[in-house]
Amino acid sequence: MSNTEKPSDNQESLVIIEDIETGIKAITLNRPDQFNALCDTLLSSLQAIFDRLVDDSETKVVILKGAGRAFCAGHDLKEMRDNPNLDYQRDLFKRCSNLMLSITQLPQPIIAQVQGIATAAGCQLVATCDLAVASTTARFAVSGVNLGLFCSTPGVALARNLPRKRALEMLMTGDFIDAPTAERWNLINRAVEEEELDETVMALARKIASKPKSILSYGKKAFYQQIDQTLMTAYERAGEVMACNMMDPDAIEGIDAFIEKRDPEWKSTIK
Fold it and tell me: Domain 3-209's class?
């Protein structure tokens, strides 16, 4: 049975947190009538949850999803127009950027589970998550250009996932792409039938959760650190991480188990 946690009294309707299984937590954006648009309160609530996850020794994998018919429609445009001053807009995009950075800096892998639409900052969320699985009916766009607002911050995430010309095509046309196209363009890992989405994501989460938590944390951190470095610096950094990784009890156990032809007994795997 899952354990449901709500962030606070005034934010409880906006984000739902559930312990799905041991080591696997689901975070649900819960503004279905607004297609889970990222209003100020939702952004703050989600950031607080990610901040707590940094020190959460029980959670090994996080699933991020949206309630209702959509994953996330991006920023709340009405709220943005209600605050027509530059300081507010700067603060909004700074907070959103910090949220995206938090995803890559968390020790736990985060899987985006996508149904319906993922647009603008919602598409940015998909691109920023470590992994993403979508239903075949899902659609993706960074359509701000159609409103006179180029999706520059979503472009940061897209440029680090999609081939450059594919990213620019999405950013410059504002057109939607379907899930099979998103898979071909490397925005998502795979597209599956809608009725298979929950189980496909859970199977992926369970497979990752079966690995040692400390090793997943090492690997994720090293992956993002090296990604924008020069080839030489990346190899130097990755080599140092692997050398330190070899000193980890789980690495020692895993290699010994392989040599001895037995199953490993992970020290940091949650039972």
Answer: alpha beta
Residue 263 tokens read as 């199953």
- CATH class of domain segment(s) 213-259: mainly alpha
Rounded CA gap, 21 and 202, in Å?
10
Q: Are 115 and 135 in contact (CB under 8 A)?
A: yes
Long-range contacts of 160-163 (CB under 8 A, 24+ apart): 160/127, 160/227, 161/127, 161/186, 161/187, 162/127, 162/186, 162/187
**Model confidence pLDDT, tens digit, residues 97-138:** 999 999 999 999 999 999 999 999 999 999 999 999 999 999
**Residue 206 contacts residue 24 (beta carbons within 8 Å):** yes
* Residue spans per domain, the chain: 3-209, 213-259
**Cα–Cα distance between 224 and 241 in angstroms, integer?**
12
pTM: 0.89
Tokens of 98: 């910090």
What gap in Å lies between CA 49 and CA 256, rounded to an integer? 37
The DSSP symbol for 2 reads -
In this structure, what are the phi and psi dihedrals at residue 39, rounded to the nearest 5 degrees?
-75, 170
